[in-house]
């Protein structure tokens, strides 16, 4: 490598080290402000809100619950590329590099100050990160060019390549010291800051200390039928279990850093078009009669055959009771929920109040809600997609109208009212699987039409006649329904399996192919399996 190339590489390194110092300082200061104020998180959250819905859908489809890790990796890579450019610019002309850092810092400040649910102090980590980055850049560039240094052997002509010393680094000792110092600061600040954030803002200790009261109305009978399902069909092996364990429950939200809400200070304010404003503490909620219900929650972004649907036993307070106490006025057709992280989710009041088990949920599968699933309190409304009903980390509920307020996803073009659509899925066998000719193959899966119910499921092999599957018993219409059809392949080669479900009224699910946007996917799920 000639001197020129080596100098370029070194300039890039100067940029990377300075950016690392900026990011590290940002994380460290964010540990004193709050985790969402971290510049990288703030930029990521802004990117999430700026991303057009089709791209979001694509990301959810491609990466699922990994979408956040992918986004953060992308941001780090982009910052690294910009940092190299800034470094190269700075070694030529320091002011130019400093300007670049300032622009990046300004982006961080802007994102922190415009985030959903932002606070004024959220800008502080970005400001400190920018200043730290500028300081590091200045020191490292001066060591390289020998400008502005007392001990330097340079001529001070950092701008002019012709008069520059013919060495790579004008002040080698100063550069080494600065570089090692910057790297150490970045690593300690970054990882230390993150660790501090995790200890200072962590709801898991509070969560672990909670003992939920027993429900006055339990989902016990339901547990029996879930067990019966598994026994009858061996669905544990051949399909999906009725209950989704919390660790496997799908997760969809825009929170790059999971809100850590302290149950001791948590409050839910119920206001707007009501006769009496209510403010409930966590203790108030637990003091009320709790019910426990099996509910299948589904995401509107779920593709036909997708996995953004899960079933849990939710424990909570019936929301309609609370709303009757507040006295929701006629005309308030929307209940607008706001979360600790500024998400807004609007539900149709009539649906919440129609007698179904809409809840302010505090528990999931017998334990307090997991932090990722909304601890301490979330909404659950059987029959509505999550984006119009299932606000996690809820802190505010306003009785309003659809005309007056558009919730977050609705502003993105999604349907304002989101009833779950009748659908079905084949879980076994999978498309990649082989089955044996002449053997009995359980074709199994789930079908759902929450709060309406599934009355029949049929399976079709290679375009032939539709065959009726056996349905598992269900606790209520609010959950998915497991089904199984025993199929004996009679010939080798590829076989196409399709499934369709019928609702409680005998209506079949729509075969028209529609993408999830804007009101949920339709079409029949099919898998192709090989028999040999
Ligand atoms: N605060 C908050 N609540 C939210 C969301 C969100 O992004 N933020 N996403 C909603 C969507 S789109 C769905 S499908 C459900 C998913 O709930 P889960 O992550 O517990 O499965 O949460 C809903 N509640
Ligand atoms: Mo969703």
UniProtKB/TrEMBL annotation:
Gene3D superfamilies: 2.60.40.650, Oxidoreductase, molybdopterin-binding domain
InterPro entries: Ig_E-set (IPR014756), OxRdtase_Mopterin-bd_dom (IPR000572), OxRdtase_Mopterin-bd_sf (IPR036374)
Oxidoreductase molybdopterin-binding domain boundaries: 256-409
Protein name: Molybdopterin-dependent oxidoreductase
PANTHER family the record matches: SULFITE OXIDASE, MITOCHONDRIAL (PTHR19372:SF7), SULFITE REDUCTASE (PTHR19372)
Species the sequence originates in: Jatrophihabitans lederbergiae
Domain of life assignment: Bacteria
TM helices/strands, residue ranges: 70-91, 98-117, 123-141
Keywords from the named record: Membrane, Transmembrane, Transmembrane helix
């Amino acid at each position: 490598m000639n001197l020129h190339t080596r100098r370029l590489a070194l300039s890039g390194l100067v940029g990377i080290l300075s950016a690392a110092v900026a990011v590290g300082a940002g994380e460290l200061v964010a540990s004193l402000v709050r985790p969402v104020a971290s510049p990288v998180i703030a930029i990521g959250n802004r990117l999430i809100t700026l991303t057009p819905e089709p791209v979001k859908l694509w990301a959810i489809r491609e990466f699922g619950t990994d979408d956040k890790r992918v986004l953060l990796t992308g941001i780090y890579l982009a910052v690294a590329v910009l940092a190299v450019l800034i470094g190269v610019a700075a070694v030529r002309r320091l002011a130019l590099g400093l300007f670049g850092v300032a622009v990046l810092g300004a982006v961080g400040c802007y994102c922190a100050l415009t985030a959903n649910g932002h606070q004024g102090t959220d800008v502080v980590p970005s400001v400190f990160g920018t200043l730290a980055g500028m300081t590091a850049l200045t020191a490292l560039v001066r060591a390289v060019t020998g400008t502005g240094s007392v001990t330097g052997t340079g001529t001070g002509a950092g701008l002019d390549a012709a008069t520059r010393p013919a060495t790579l680094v004008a002040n080698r000792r100063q550069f080494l010291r600065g570089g090692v110092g910057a790297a150490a600061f970045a690593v300690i600040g970054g990882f230390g800051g993150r660790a501090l954030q995790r200890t200072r803002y962590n709801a898991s200790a509070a969560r672990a200390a909670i003992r939920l009261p027993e429900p006055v109305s339990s989902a016990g009978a339901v547990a029996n039928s879930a067990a019966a399902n598994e026994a009858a069909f061996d669905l544990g092996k051949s399909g999906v279990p009725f209950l989704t364990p919390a660790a496997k429950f799908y997760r969809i939200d825009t929170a790059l850093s999971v809100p850590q809400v302290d149950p001791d200070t948590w409050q839910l304010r119920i206001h707007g078009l009501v006769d009496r404003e209510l403010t409930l503490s966590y203790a108030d909620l637990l003091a009320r009669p709790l019910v426990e219900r099996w509910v299948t929650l589904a995401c509107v972004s779920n593709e036909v055959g997708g996995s953004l649907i899960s079933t849990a036993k939710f424990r909570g307070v019936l929301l309609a009771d609370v709303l009757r106490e507040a006295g929701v006025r006629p005309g308030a057709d929307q209940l607008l929920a706001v979360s600790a992280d500024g998400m807004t989710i609007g539900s149709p009041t009539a649906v919440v109040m129609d007698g179904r088990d809409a809840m302010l949920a505090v528990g999931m599968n017998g334990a307090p809600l997991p932090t990722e699933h909304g601890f301490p309190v979330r909404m659950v409304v059987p029959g509505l997609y999550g984006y119009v009903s299932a606000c996690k980390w809820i802190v505010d509920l306003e009785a309003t109208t659809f005309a007056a307020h558009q919730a977050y996803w609705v502003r993105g073009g999604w349907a304002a009212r989101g009833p779950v659509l009748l659908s079905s899925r084949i879980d076994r066998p999978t498309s990649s699987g082989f089955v044996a000719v002449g053997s009995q193959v359980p074709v199994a899966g789930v079908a759902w039409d929450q709060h309406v119910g599934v009355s029949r499921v049929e399976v079709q092999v290679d375009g032939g006649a539709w065959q009726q599957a056996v349905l598992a018993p269900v606790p209520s219409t609010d959950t998915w329904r497991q089904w199984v059809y025993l199929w004996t392949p009679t010939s080798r080669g590829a076989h196409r399996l399709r499934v369709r479900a019928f609702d409680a009224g005998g209506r079949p699910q729509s075969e028209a192919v529609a993408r999830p946007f804007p009101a949920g996917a339709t079409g029949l799920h099919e898998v192709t399996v090989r028999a040999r």
